[in-house]
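Internal tracking record. Fields below are filled automatically when a chain is submitted to the structure queue. Please do not edit lines marked as system-generated. If the sequence contains nonstandard residues, flag them in the REMARKS field before resubmitting.
Queue: standard
Priority: normal
Entity type: single polypeptide chain
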Amino acid sequence: MLHHTIEPLYDGHSRVLILGSFPSVKSREQQFFYGHKQNRFWRVMAQVLGCAVPENIEQKKEMLLSHHIAVWDVIASCEITGSSDASIRDVTPNDLSRILDCADIRAIYVNGGKAYQLYQKYIYSINGREAVVLPSTSPANAGYSLERLVEAWRIIREEL
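SYSTEM-GENERATED OUTPUT FOLLOWS
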């Protein structure tokens, strides 16, 4: 059983919450979200927000928080093989109330279909908050070019 050890990124000014499924092997090693250099999350967010691509964890935090974006994951613990979302089982969800109780989250977005499926199964019934699924920024989502991802993810700007 693996446990999520990365603290959520948010503050009292956060308006948008983006949820992944569970940290990849690289993210667990770096102790920060979307750590695999092939994951397009940081490039997508930089383009959506009109920023330079952040090069380190502090810059990543600054970019998101300065635009009122919170990031965390649906899962608190699970069984997983490597970084494969398809292998996830024995899920314990994260308690999103720690973010939702202190920030004025106006919209929740999930990064990919598996995160959405897990959100619907484990979290929606608890908080009753709809989530919008966005195409995964994972390199496994080869059907989406960077340009298509940016276009889909631009919806986030409506809430900022």
